[in-house]
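Milestone 3.1: sequence recovery, worked example.
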């Protein structure tokens, strides 16, 4: 076999597609469901549930304004059924897409033996191999940890919990807290250190006060024991509720142990061409650590595929945009190559734009914080809260990555209406 790809998440699926388009022979092996964590257990599930929480939040807002009257009744089991039905459709489409470029898709658990991959008792020799086996939830070594749920279990819940305890203080913890708080759960979040360390203090405060005001966040606290329907913290307090771990991810790198070099955290070690230390073996996506984001995994998979097909390519991680999927999106990007000796920061309120008009009356259209390089007239960092922050920050990250200065931004023509927490306000406040 010319090329074997193990794992069909964003990295493996896009790598296979790229190789197929380059008319290379490809065997794609998947242990469970095609499209990996993103579609089946991760971001797509979070986004689907967040769409519902946004609808409920908007309905509540319109009821408070008085021009719509009526409460909503949620059938959680039917919601889960429709998410699963949609996943099944997308799995079929993803498989058809890969097969349409001539790739063969096989389901089963793979292992590596010298220059062969073994799956379902059959052995395949390879010229190039890509390991894209992703990652799984990291469960802390806490007494009673078997009673804690993870993102893998969200669609297994029978109903919206009356009380939900989330252990962890990062993006996943915040997104899950936003969903279930809006759906009616009493939500507690327990962060071992600070909550949402990815955000600036002002942006974090806005999230807490305006977006998830009903969520109880406890910082610098440790959970020392988990029970079936409660937990115990290190200050001897008990909290009732279903327990949910959002404490990071661990690479599914066991398949490469003793074959390729691993990093200190057991992720697979690769270079900028996604090559391991072993000739003709590559790795991409969450199994390599770094940014555990679907767009980054796709980028890494495509880079690996091009190198496997002898089209030299290197990966670049500068100015990677990220977001929190909440009732109002929170997006951020940082230029890692910035000069921190000449920085200036400004904060600006959100302006009414798409999906923001009905938030003007309550003055919660958002907030954006921008850090500049004064000397070189460039953006260093942006944290943005607005209904269109995902698109705003995506294009601003591109301009940052291309090293444009602020004067070049005025050539950009946006579609109206759009939020102005972008180049026009930035330019007016800066110059």
């Amino acid at each position: 076999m010319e090329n074997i790809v193990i794992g069909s998440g964003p990295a493996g699926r896009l790598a296979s597609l790229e190789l197929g388009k380059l008319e290379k022979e490809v065997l794609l092996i998947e242990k469970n469901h095609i499209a990996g964590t993103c579609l089946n257990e991760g971001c797509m599930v979070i986004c689907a549930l967040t769409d519902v929480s946004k609808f409920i939040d908007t309905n509540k807002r319109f009821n408070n304004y008085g021009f719509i009257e009526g409460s909503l009744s949620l059938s959680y089991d039917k919601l889960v059924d429709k998410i699963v039905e949609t996943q099944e459709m997308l799995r079929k489409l993803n498989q058809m897409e890969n097969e349409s470029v001539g790739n063969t898709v096989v389901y089963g658990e793979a292992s590596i033996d010298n220059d062969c991959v073994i799956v379902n008792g059959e052995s395949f020799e390879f010229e190039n191999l890509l390991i894209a086996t992703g990652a799984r939830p990291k469960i802390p070594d806490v007494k009673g940890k078997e009673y804690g749920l993870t993102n893998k279990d969200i669609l297994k819940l029978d109903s919206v919990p009356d009380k939900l305890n989330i252990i962890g203080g990062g993006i996943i913890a915040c997104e899950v807290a936003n969903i279930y708080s809006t759906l009616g759960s009493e939500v507690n979040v327990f962060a071992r250190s600070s909550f949402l360390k990815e955000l600036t203090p002002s942006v974090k405060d806005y999230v807490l006060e305006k977006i998830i005001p009903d969520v109880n966040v406890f910082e610098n606290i440790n959970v020392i024991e988990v029970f079936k329907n409660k937990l115990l913290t290190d200050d001897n307090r008990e909290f009732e509720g279903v327990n949910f771990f959002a404490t990071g991810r661990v690479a599914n790198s066991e398949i490469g142990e003793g074959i390729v070099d691993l990093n200190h955290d057991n992720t697979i070690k690769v270079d900028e061409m996604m090559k391991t230390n072993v000739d003709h073996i590559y790795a991409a996506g969450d199994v390599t650590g770094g940014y555990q984001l679907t767009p980054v995994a796709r980028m890494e998979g495509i880079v690996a595929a091009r190198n496997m097909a002898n089209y030299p390519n290197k990966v670049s991680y500068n100015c990677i945009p990220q977001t929190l999927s909440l009732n109002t999106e929170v997006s951020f990007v940082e230029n890692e190559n910035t000069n921190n000796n000449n920085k200036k920061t400004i904060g600006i309120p959100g302006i009414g734009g798409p999906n923001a008009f009905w938030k003007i009356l309550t003055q919660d259209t958002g907030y954006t914080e921008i850090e500049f390089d004064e000397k070189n007239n460039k953006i260093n960092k942006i944290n943005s809260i607005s209904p269109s922050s995902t698109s705003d920050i995506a294009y601003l990250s591109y301009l940052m990555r291309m090293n444009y200065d602020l004067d070049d931004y005025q050539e950009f023509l946006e579609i109206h209406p759009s939020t102005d927490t972008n180049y026009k306000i930035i330019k007016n406040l800066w110059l």
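The longest helix spans residues 76-99. The radius of gyration is 23 Å.
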